[in-house]
């Protein structure tokens, strides 16, 4: 990315700093000269920015690179364990906590179970407690904490970030941002859970240089985060990506949204467990949890396998529609999906190929996420880190 | 939009010129001082650009504006009939020709019927003939012609613009751009037909300041063009917006794509005509054209009305998925749709509301286009004009 000559413009100075930081991050080792060449800034201007980043300990000198004639150049890299960000993911029955350094390394990870769904007040209280606990345990200096990102399973107002609806938590019109800012006294950012997962794929996962992708989260419900032209796409009011209610089976179950045969009634974890428990065709006790369903399926229980495959066919149909409409390069299936990907991914790919148009289907790859259930907490921690790199 | 200080950078000079031009266009009358204020350029730099635009006759002085203390300022506007662009739309049985000036005024319009589908060679020949005819008739000087845009009903390669597939023309892997450039000896641009219509809505129609919208064309088939974050969205390989194959009825007709109950089998013009002709329930002769179908429906023929309403319900369902997935501000229904909008728009709105999630549905407006069948030719003519304004 080309930098811009700044004069005394503070905004442009910060922008150039971010551009330099981002080049150091993405190159995984780069010299001052290469930075100047790539940004178009003078050697002096580049040197000044690099010195200030070294002083502030965002970056460090890694060693000497290869010479292209003269002296061997000093290679710069991000400094691990220098600055940190927190990511929280509010799930219906638990809170995930992640602490990440600016290189993307996770240095702390915790899952705290909750007996019931969090109320907003409980969520604020628990996040504050977990934050303090981690800061103390890791002996973090507050001036090294970039901020806190919070992932919420719901629709957020695009401007105010008020939570308009979070059905799995039973929340509507909830203000979480300001109370958290007051409680933590540090920059706080909220985002939708699926968007946090998509952001995690984009920053650390399988979609680092992918312009157009969709990250579909399979868990109690089904949601997705869209990255289009390399950036989070939210729609006009922040609710883009609600793919859980694509109808995929006209004779399917009634969904809580009021319609029939929505994707999430058939392909979500809750949907699959309900369908397995409803089936009386076999003598096995399928049990009430998804882990039991998976165990039975792996042991050859046909009813459990059938439920998983029906989920996969439905997901494949919905993906076909997304391929036709959005023409993405990748579709990443995340959250619980990697736990059972090997049982169903072929069915999903085959179904999507069958129902999508040939050309866009040939351009799209359907893959399981390399993260599991903590992708949203990871993505939440990435929000304050991204800002450092002007992303 | 802020301009950038240029020094001697030719690229930035052109950029600033385009920014000034675009401000003049969108303000519909603006003074030099207001231009300087809005761009952040000096009075001298602004004056130089304005003089050069006046010399080249892109703009003209309109008269005097209101004084804010001193002299009354001279108001600048785009100069009508100064520069022109051509738009062609290759349809299966006809070619639309549009000539537009830089203000967006259409000064020439022609629809040329063809007995059969165009072959690529026929298309090139016919476009060349129609171009020459219009240039001669309008006595256009070639240095005042900005370029030619061509709308094609198919999927174009995003880089080479080769036509990968145009099913209604029976074309696959067709090179049209280079032969047309050679034949016309002027800049030529190709784009997908639905995207041309969307671009027309964005430049001249109902979506001028709309960030996220979808323009769905109802004609022999069904396609759509997506504008997301204010810009054409094409997907990773140029085929985004293929909404004609969203499945909407599991017991519906078999589609030419091989699947069952695709939107366009039920809601396209060809689909509706086929369904009306297939129906034997009434004694009317429904006839073979969509115009006859509409006439009968308006005269109270229940079968014809039923076919239109089934189309509307299917369209409403597909729009519901689009609302959930993309969360657009507007959904514009174009091409043949305005001809019968009043008969079905309420059914479409009601169905979309029923099947979409409440919140995004409340943020989306479903409206008929204010253009008819020539929206793609208009959008094609806009391609060379857009470039003048850096858009």
Describe what you observe in this structure.
Two copies of one chain form a homodimer. By secondary structure, chain A is α/β, with parallel strands linked by helices. Chain A folds into three domains: 10-78, Winged helix-like DNA-binding domain superfamily/Winged helix DNA-binding domain (Arc Repressor Mutant, subunit A), CATH 1.10.10.10; 84-201 and 375-388, 2-Layer Sandwich (Nucleotidyltransferase, domain 5), CATH 3.30.420.40; 206-368, ATPase, nucleotide binding domain (Nucleotidyltransferase, domain 5, 2-Layer Sandwich), CATH 3.30.420.40. Helices cover 41% and strands 22% of the residues of chain A. The first copy, chain A, has 13 helices and 16 strands. In chain A, strands 6-5-4-7-11 form a five-stranded mixed beta sheet, with helices on both faces. A five-stranded mixed beta sheet of chain A has the order 14-13-12-15-16, sandwiched between helices. The longest helix of chain A has 25 residues, at 302-326. The radius of gyration of chain A is 23 Å and the shape is globular. The relative contact order of chain A is 0.12. Chain A binds chain B through residues 4, 155, 164-165, 211-212, 226, 228-229, 231, 233-243, 245-247, 249-250, 257, 259, 317, 321-322, 324-329, 354-357, 359-360, 363-364, and chain B through 4, 155, 164-165, 211-212, 228-229, 231, 233-243, 245-247, 249-250, 257, 259, 317, 321-322, 324-329, 354-357, 359-360, 363-364.
């Amino acid at each position: 990315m080309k930098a811009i000559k700044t004069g005394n413009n503070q905004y442009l100075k910060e922008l150039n700093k971010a551009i330099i930081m981002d080049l150091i991050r993405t190159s995984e080792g780069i010299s001052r000269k290469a930075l100047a060449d790539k940004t178009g800034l003078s050697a002096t201007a580049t040197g000044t920015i690099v010195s200030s980043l070294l002083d502030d300990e965002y970056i460090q000198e890694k060693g000497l690179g290869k010479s292209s004639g003269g002296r061997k150049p000093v290679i710069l890299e991000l400094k691990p364990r220098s600055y940190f960000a927190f990511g929280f993911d509010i799930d219906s029955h638990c809170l995930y906590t992640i602490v990440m350094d600016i290189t993307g390394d996770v240095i702390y990870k915790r899952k705290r179970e909750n007996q019931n769904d969090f109320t907003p007040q409980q969520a604020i209280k628990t996040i504050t407690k977990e934050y303090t606990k981690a800061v103390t345990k890791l002996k973090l200096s507050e001036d090294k904490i970039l901020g806190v990102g919070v992932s919420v399973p719901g629709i957020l107002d695009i401007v105010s970030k008020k939570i308009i609806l979070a059905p799995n938590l039973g929340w509507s019109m909830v203000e979480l941002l300001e109370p958290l800012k007051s409680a933590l006294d540090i920059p706080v950012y909220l985002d939708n859970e699926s968007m946090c997962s998509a952001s995690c794929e984009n920053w650390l996962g399988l979609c680092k240089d992918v312009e157009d992708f969709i990250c579909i989260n399979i868990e109690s419900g089904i949601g997705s985060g869209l990255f289009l032209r390399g950036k989070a796409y939210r729609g006009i009011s922040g609710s883009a990506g609600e793919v859980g209610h694509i109808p995929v089976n006209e004779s399917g179950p009634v969904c809580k949204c009021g319609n029939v045969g929505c994707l999430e009634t058939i392909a979500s974890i809750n949907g699959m467990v309900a369908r397995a428990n409803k089936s009386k065709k076999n003598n096995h006790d399928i049990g009430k949890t998804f882990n039991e369903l998976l165990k039975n399926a792996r042991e050859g229980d046909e009813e459990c396998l059938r439920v998983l495959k029906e989920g996969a066919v439905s997901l494949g149909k919905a993906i076909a529609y997304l391929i036709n409409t959005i023409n993405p390069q990748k579709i990443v299936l995340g959250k619980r999906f990697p736990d059972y990907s090997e049982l169903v991914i072929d069915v999903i790919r085959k179904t999507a190929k069958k129902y999508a148009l040939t050309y866009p289907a040939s351009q799209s790859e359907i893959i399981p996420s390399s993260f599991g259930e903590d992708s949203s907490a990871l993505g939440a921690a990435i929000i304050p880190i991204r800002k450092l790199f002007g992303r």
